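Try this one yourself first.
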C-alpha cells in the first residue's frame, strides 16, 4: 500500500516537473524571438534581482575575496549610449531614459528634446540650451524656441529673431529672421518680412522672399505658392520646373514622387513635374518604405514605386508603411491590425486604435511568466502535500488548473 502511495507521489511530481519545464522552455524561446525586446526584459529582470549571497548596498554588491576579505563591487551606471528618450516625471518635469527603460537623468527640465548625436536641446527657466550625454550644459539656456538639427545646423530664437547654431551652441548665422525653418538640400525657409524665401548655409537669400507659402526642399525641389494663389515646383535657384493651378496643392517629394491634391482627386508627379502613373485616386498618402497608400471606390490599398497596385484596395483606413509594417483598418471587423508588404496580417486586426497593437504586444511575455510562476507555486504546494499529507487518490491539487490566476 505504501509502495503505491509513493508511486502516485512520484507520478504527481514528474507531471508538474514536465509542465513547468515545458512552460519555461516556451518562455525562453519566446524571449529570444520576441521582437519587442523580450530578451532585454529578461536581462533587466535578472539585473534587478538581489544577489544570492548577502544583501546589496546602495553603492554596489558585497563579495568575498579568496583571502576572505570583504569587497564592494560598484553597480554600473545605466548606459547613456544609443537612443535616450525624454519622459515626463511625476513632478511635472522632464528627464531621460535609455532604450532599456533605465532612468539616466532624473526629471529636472521644463522641456526636453531627443538627442541628436551627442547633444540635445533642453529647457530650464523657460529658455533652451544644449546638453551633453553627461547632462552638462554645453550651451547654457538662452533661446526662447528651437528646432531640431538638420545638416549640422539648428534654428534658434533669441529676442524675437531667429538664427542658426552648431552642435556646440556657436552662432553660425546671426539672429536676422522673423521666421526660419530647418536646412534641407542646403536651403532653409526664412523670412524677414511677410513673404518667404530660402537662405543658403551662410544665411544669404538664395531664393528671394516672394512666396506666401513654402515647403522644405526634398530631392532638390520644393513647392511654393504665389500671391495669385498659383503653386509651383521650383529648383534650388528658384527656377520654376512646373506650374500648378490654384486648385492644386503639393506635398514635398518622397522617394522620388510628390503627392498632388487637385480638388477631390490625388495623383503623383515625378521629378520632372510630369504625372507619374496617369492614375488619379480618391485619396493618397506620400510614398514610404517603397509603397504609397491610395484610396479607390471608398477603400484603401497600396501601390509600389512603379505605380502598380501591389495590395488590393480593401481596407476602410490605412497608414503609411514604417519599419516594414503598415496599420490598416479591416473592413469586416472595423478593427486595426498591421500588414506586411505582402498584404498578409503580421498583427491581426484586434484593436480599436492603430497604436494599441504595439502597446499590447508586451502582454504575451508577461502572460508566459505569470503562467510559469503559477505552476511553480502549484508544484511547491503539490510537493508539500505529497510529503506531509499524501492524497488518497493521487489527483491534481486544487487550483492547479488556474493557470492565468494571480495567486
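Now uncover the answer:
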Amino acid at each position: 500500500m505504501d509502495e503505491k502511495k509513493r508511486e502516485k507521489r512520484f507520478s504527481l511530481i514528474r507531471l508538474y516537473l514536465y509542465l513547468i519545464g515545458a512552460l519555461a522552455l516556451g518562455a525562453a524561446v519566446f524571449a529570444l524571438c520576441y521582437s519587442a525586446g523580450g530578451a532585454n526584459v529578461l536581462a533587466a529582470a535578472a539585473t534587478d534581482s538581489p544577489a544570492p549571497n548577502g544583501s546589496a548596498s546602495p553603492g554596489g554588491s558585497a563579495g568575498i575575496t579568496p583571502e576572505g576579505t570583504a569587497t564592494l563591487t560598484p553597480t554600473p551606471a545605466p548606459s547613456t549610449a544609443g537612443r535616450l528618450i525624454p519622459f515626463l516625471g511625476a513632478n511635472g518635469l522632464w528627464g531621460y531614459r535609455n532604450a532599456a527603460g533605465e532612468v539616466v537623468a532624473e526629471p529636472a527640465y521644463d522641456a526636453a528634446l531627443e538627442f541628436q548625436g551627442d547633444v540635445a536641446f533642453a529647457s530650464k527657466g523657460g529658455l533652451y540650451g544644449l546638453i551633453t550625454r553627461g547632462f552638462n550644459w554645453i550651451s547654457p539656456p538662452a533661446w526662447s524656441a528651437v528646432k531640431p538639427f538638420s545638416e549640422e545646423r539648428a534654428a534658434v530664437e533669441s529676442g524675437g529673431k531667429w538664427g542658426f547654431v552648431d552642435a556646440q551652441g556657436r552662432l553660425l548665422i546671426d539672429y536676422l529672421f522673423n521666421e526660419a525653418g530647418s536646412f534641407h538640400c542646403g536651403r532653409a525657409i526664412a523670412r524677414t518680412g511677410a513673404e518667404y524665401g530660402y537662405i543658403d548655409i551662410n544665411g544669404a537669400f538664395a531664393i528671394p522672399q516672394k512666396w506666401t507659402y513654402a515647403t522644405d526642399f526634398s530631392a532638390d525641389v520644393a513647392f511654393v505658392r504665389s500671391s495669385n494663389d498659383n503653386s509651383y515646383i521650383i529648383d534650388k535657384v528658384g527656377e520654376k520646373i512646373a506650374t500648378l493651378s490654384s486648385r492644386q496643392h503639393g506635398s514635398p517629394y518622397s522617394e522620388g514622387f510628390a503627392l498632388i491634391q487637385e480638388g477631390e482627386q490625388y495623383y503623383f508627379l515625378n521629378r520632372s513635374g510630369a504625372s507619374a502613373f496617369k492614375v488619379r485616386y480618391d485619396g493618397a498618402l506620400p510614398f514610404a518604405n517603397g509603397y504609397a497608400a491610395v484610396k479607390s471606390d471608398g477603400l484603401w490599398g497600396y501601390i509600389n514605386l512603379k505605380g502598380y497596385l501591389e495590395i488590393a484596395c480593401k481596407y476602410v483606413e490605412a497608414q503609411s508603411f514604417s519599419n516594414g509594417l503598415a496599420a490598416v483598418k479591416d473592413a469586416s471587423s472595423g478593427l486595426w491590425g498591421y500588414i506586411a508588404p505582402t498584404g498578409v496580417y503580421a498583427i491581426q486586426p484586434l484593436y480599436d486604435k492603430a497604436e494599441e497593437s504595439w502597446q499590447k504586444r508586451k502582454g504575451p511575455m508577461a502572460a508566459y511568466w505569470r503562467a510559469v510562476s503559477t505552476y511553480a507555486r502549484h508544484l511547491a504546494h503539490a510537493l508539500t502535500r505529497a510529503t506531509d499529507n499524501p492524497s488518497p487518490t493521487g489527483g491534481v491539487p486544487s487550483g492547479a488548473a488556474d493557470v492565468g490566476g494571480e495567486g
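Discussion: Confidence is low (pLDDT under 50) at residues 30-62, 356-407. DSSP finds four helices and 31 strands in the chain.
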